Amino acid sequence: MRSPRIAVVYYSATGNVASMAHAVAAGAEAAGAEVRVRRVAETAPEEAIASNPRWQAFVDATRDDVAALDDLSWADGLAFGSPTRFGGPASQLKAFLDTTGGLWFSGVLATKACTSFTTASTGHGGLESTILAMNNHFYHWGSVIVPLGYADGHIARVTGNPYGASWVSRSGSTPDGDCLEACRIQGRRLAVVAGKLSNNE
Q1: What's 129's domain CATH number?
Q2: What is the pLDDT of residue 157?
């Protein structure tokens, strides 16, 4: 039996989703997985990025490699993260997901375990609908969707979102310890499910 391989693919403008992505990765690693963390390419105009100091600082500071389709082929489990954009994922992540037609056609993605996580600036800003929108790709791929669920008491007691880890970034606040723990739980859960799937092929 080999260790499960997990790819965490995200888009982040100011760094909140990136922090969550690395927490998901840490949870998967704690469960014995080999992990890649990848950001999707930034496509926003330079002037838009420069208009927000936090956005510019994150773009300048991030060192994660840019996601490629090979990362999806390599992995047994996939985690995708994005801030909400009008109740759906950011166009940068959506554009990457929309390049997966060849992998879908070949059936490669049908053996993957997949999960999603997100942020919004308000409690009703589209957290659940963004996760569900990302999950729509997994239905078409034929993948096994791994929700966060309520199996871990931390989720039931503290965060209350069984769809996937989420953070409400009021006034630009960064993910707190409870959110990052939910991300680690989600990463562990993904690694365990992906490991069972990959070792039973």
Answers
A1: 3.40.50.360
A2: 85
CA distance linking residue 138 with residue 132, whole number of Å: 10
pTM (whole model) above 0.90: yes
* Per-residue pLDDT reduced to its tens digit, 62-80: 989 999 999 999 999 999 9
The residue to which tokens 């589209």 are assigned: 126
Tell me which residues of the chain have a pLDDT lower than 50.
Answer: none
Distances (CA, A) of 3 to 28, 101, 141, 192, 195: 11, 27, 23, 10, 7
- Residue 57 is part of which domain span? 5-198
DSSP assignment string, 98-127: TTTHHHHHHTGGGG-EEEEEEEESSTTSSH
pLDDT value for 144: 97
Counted domains in the chain: 1
Quote the pLDDT of residue 71.
98
Other CB atoms within a 10 A radius of the CB of residue 166 amount to 28
* Burial of 44 (C-beta count, 10 Å sphere; 0-12/13-18/19+): middle
Pairwise CA distance, residues 83 & 65, whole Å: 19
